[in-house]
Each structure stands twice: as C-alpha cells, then as structure tokens.
TrEMBL record:
High-level lineage: Bacteria, Bacillati, Actinomycetota, Actinomycetes, Micromonosporales
Protein name: LmbE family N-acetylglucosaminyl deacetylase
Species, as recorded: Actinoplanes digitatis
Domain DUF7402: 247-374, 378-510
Matching InterPro entries: DUF7402 (IPR055826), Galactose-bd-like_sf (IPR008979), LmbE-like_dom_sf (IPR024078)
Pfam family, one: DUF7402
Domain of life: Bacteria
C-alpha cells in the first residue's frame, strides 16, 4: 500500500499503522524485536525525521499494546499487537498458533509473542474498532480482504485484512476503506512511476537493514520479488463506510452487458485484478448507461463511481440524471481503481441513471467496477437501542435505519416492531461524534392496525420536540426544528391507535441542516 502511505505522510495527515503480527517467523524474540526497528526506520525516512520514537502502552478494547509516535512528527505513529507470525499453521516456538487459525475458528485464542495478551477473534476485531473510534480516521488502508483464496497471499495478510474489514463495517464515522494486494501483485503490470518507485525502494532498504531474512543491498533487491513489488500498488477492493450506500437496494439495468448487478455488489476491484466483479458493456462506448430504481424514495447527496481499472477502458466523462429531472456532470473517472466521488445538493429521488458521454481512445467495452449512492441520513451512523424488538419475526431495531422506508412487503421484513409495545415504547440513536441535525423523517409501519398517533423527540442537549400522528400507510412525516448539535436522540411513542398490537417504525431518518 505504498506509495499511498507516503502520500499521506507527505500531506501531513495523521497516520497510524497497526502491525497485527510480530513477524517473528518462529525465529524467537531477538529476530522480531530487531524487525520492529525496520518500520521505525522506514517511517522516519518517509517523514524526513530522525529515527526517534516516544513509546507507551495504550489499551484498545481489552488489550494493552505498544504505541509509538515519531518524536519529530507525532502525527506519525505505530502500534504493535505482536500476535504470532503463523505462516498459516503456526510455528513450534509459538505452540503452532496463527492469526488465520484464530480467524477461521480452529483456535479459540492465541498469545502475543511478548506474553502480554491472550487474543480472541472477537477481541481483536473489537480492538481494531476501538482504534478506529479513538482516532476517527476518514481513510483506512488494509491488505486484501476481498479474495478468500488464501494461497494467493500470506495467511497473516489475509487474516489481518479480514479483521480490519470486520471492524470497518461497525465503524460509523463516514470513511473509506481500501484493500491492497501484497504478494499477488507480482504477476500484474507495473503501475508505479520510476521516481516514486525509487523512493519506495529507499524506504524498503531502510527497513531491510533490520530484517536478516530479506535482501540487504539495492542490487540484490532489484533482481528479486522485492523489485517486482516496488513497481506495483494495486487496490483490489474498497468502499465507503459509516454512511449508507443505498445502491444495493435498487433494481439495476444497463444499455448492454448481462452482468449489470456486478456494479452494485459491494466489490470495487474489477479487472485486471478481479474482472468478474464488474459491469462490462458489449462493445459499448459513449452513450452506454446504467440505471437504478429504488423500491422507495431515497434522499441522496453523493455518488461514487469506480471505473474498470484496466489499461484500455476508461470513462472520461459522464452524466448523472435523477428522477426529479435534475442532472450532474461527471468528469473523468480515475483509471487506477480509485473511486470518483461526485457530491451535489441533496435530492429525494426514485431513480438515477449514469450515462457515459466520453471514453478514452483505446476503450473497447466501457463499464463500471462499482457504483455507490449514499443517503444523507445520519441515523445509520448511530448505535440503535430500543425498548423491545421482535426477533422471532425478523423485525429488529437495526431495520429502522436500513434504508427501506416501506417496511413490510420485501423478501424479509424491513421494519422495527416491538414485542407487544404500545405507548411508552422508544427508540434511541447514539452517535460517537456530535451531529448537527435539523430534521427527522418518520415512517410508520404500513399496516392497517399499528399506528403511532403521538410521540416526542428528546435530544441529548435536554431539548425536545413533540411529534404529531404518523400517516398509517407508509407516507413520511417530516419533523423540522431549529438546528441543534447532539450525541443522541430518543423517539418515544406517547399515544397509539386502539388497534395497535406491536408499535414500531419502518424507518427513521435524521438529516443535517441544508
């Protein structure tokens, strides 16, 4: 994932790198302790600072780990988890324990090589989530979590990536995550320019001095796998997190190509890394389109488009058209696998269409690796708790913030229903970061019996707003109020219809002021 990390450091972005394993290779303490000096030296070089670090022990989740910040650049930090370097099956010196065996459930726990921690799979995922919630990153780089073929890479790389991805899915602050290939880049075309590669090799050599198991001179490294990898950086997958991507909720169609659903499958990689994960037209160029229609209206303000990241096919311009008649012009999509983020004033729509208006000269089959569309509601970023929920009928609390406003009528219920709750039932949204909000949209359960006839919104700042009756057949009720900045909001049902048996909500949306 370098030169990406180098760019972050050059831009003075706060950068924390978490090393999940000690990289001990079963060779004992002297080897892994010296090897940790490698990233220290490499990161100091990337930051143009002296190789001096301020170290302390910091607790994330249930585990105390070593945390070090660069003395001349405290915004550059390293954390060492020190789980055993397992090589898949582990080494005798570490009781044959490995991170992958832990992740796959073959072992209930593993032990750090420094003897300080006993790790479980759930505990490590919670630890990484705590790291994210503590440092609030807007960008997460990790290794390749998209390809379950473990043999294509080191098992520790895979396991660490899977754990990071699991944590990302629970991290509610808006952010992006990218999955970068490691050993698998060997067979792919070079895509790092020479001057950047030269810097990348210098950084590797600063590390290599402290690792006796890798090449020790530039000449030796230039004639082996490390030279091949220095010319390559491939992002194999990625997605936006924290916000709510509603594109998978849409029914999609396209001008040509039978694989249009691959554009909304959550995998942004595409060819040449994963050509099966993309929408490809049949000879389409300018004029090709992809269309998505939602089962219920969505309020959106951002679309992310991922081109097919191959050397020939590239979208150089396009246009987003919405069901309300509005349109947004789109510039060239990056040809490297990165997403093109298109923002616009929020609009409430039933559908959207992306039309390709220009392509590169070499394009033969235009298409997209992925198309993401984000709703404006901050409710999905919150932790949802409720007075009760009906688990037996699959009508849990999380369904109130899943993007479906219609409630029943889908293959599975998409609404929150209490277990016999009436007046006094409540739903609470809690955010890790303060949210400035000015509007709440409530959708009642769209059936003939259960209806909320009165309610109250109570905010963490002590203020409250009364809520009138909700329409009983899926029509939204919008409650607007003066802007307030809060960390939680509770909706309490104060009155219900006489026929109500299990009060609840199909959806609750919370909007920032516009």
């Amino acid at each position: 994932m370098n030169p990406e990390v180098q760019r972050d450091i050059d831009a003075d972005r706060c950068t924390l790198t978490v090393f999940m394993t000690a990289g001990d290779a079963g060779a004992g303490a002297a080897y892994w302790q010296e090897r940790e000096n490698g990233p220290r030296a490499a990161y100091a070089l990337m930051a143009d600072a002296r190789d001096r670090w301020d170290a302390k022990t910091v607790t994330f989740g249930d585990y105390a780990v070593r945390y070090e910040s660069l003395a001349g650049r405290p915004d550059v930090a390293l954390a060492f988890v020190r789980s055993p370097d397992g090589g898949g099956g582990g080494f005798p010196s570490n009781n044959s324990e490995s991170l992958m065996e832990l992740y796959q459930g073959a072992l209930p726990e593993i032990h750090s090589v420094d003897g300080q921690n006993t790790y479980t799979k759930a505990g490590l995922a919670a630890m990484l989530l705590d790291v994210m919630e503590t440092f609030q990153p807007d960008t997460i780089h990790t290794l390749d979590y998209s390809d379950k073929n473990i043999g294509a890479d080191h098992s520790d790389h895979r396991a660490a990536a899977y754990l990071a991805f699991d944590a990302h899915r629970k991290y509610r602050t808006p952010h992006s995550i990218g999955a970068y290939m490691a050993y698998g880049v060997d067979t792919l075309p070079a895509n790092v320019f020479y001057t950047v590669d030269d810097r990348k090799m210098d950084v590797f050599m600063a590390y290599a001095v402290h690792d006796s198991k890798v090449c020790q001179t530039t000449g030796a490294c230039r004639n082996g796998a490390y030279d091949i990898r220095s010319f390559r950086q491939y992002r194999n997958a990625g997605e936006q997190g924290g916000g709510q991507n509603v594109m998978p909720l849409a029914t999609v169609s396209a001008s040509s190509g039978g694989n249009v659903t691959k554009a909304v499958d959550g995998l942004t990689s595409g060819g040449p890394v994963a050509p099966g994960n993309e929408w490809t037209t049949s000879g389409g160029k300018a004029g090709s389109w992809i269309y998505g229609r939602f089962a219920n209206v969505q309020t959106i303000d951002r679309v992310v488009l991922y081109d097919r990241p191959n050397p020939t096919d590239q979208v150089t311009s396009g246009k987003l058209t919405f069901s309300d008649g509005s349109a947004v012009t789109v510039g060239a999509l990056p040809n490297t696998g990165e997403g093109k983020v298109v923002t616009f004033p929020a609009r409430t729509v039933w559908s959207l269409k992306f039309t390709v208006t220009g392509v590169s000269a070499g394009t033969r089959n235009t298409g997209l690796a992925e198309m993401q569309t984000f709703a404006t509601s901050v409710a999905p970023q919150a932790t949802v708790t409720v007075s009760s929920q009906n688990v037996a009928t699959n009508q849990q609390a999380a369904k109130a913030v899943d993007g479906y406003t219609a409630g029943q009528g889908f293959p599975t219920n998409r609404e929150w229903a209490t277990a016999g709750g009436k007046a006094g039932s409540w739903l609470k949204l809690s955010w890790l970061k303060p949210q400035s909000i000015a509007k709440v949209v409530l959708y009642d359960r769209s059936n003939g019996s259960d209806q909320i006839t009165g309610g109250k919104l109570t905010f963490s700042d002590g203020s409250s707003v009364n809520v009138p009756p909700l329409p009983n057949y899926g029509t939204p009720l919008t409650v607007s109020f003066s802007k307030r900045t809060v960390t939680s909001m509770t909706f309490t049902v104060t009155t219900v219809s006489a026929a109500t048996r299990n009060v609840g909500l199909a959806e609750i949306q919370v909007e920032a002021p516009r």
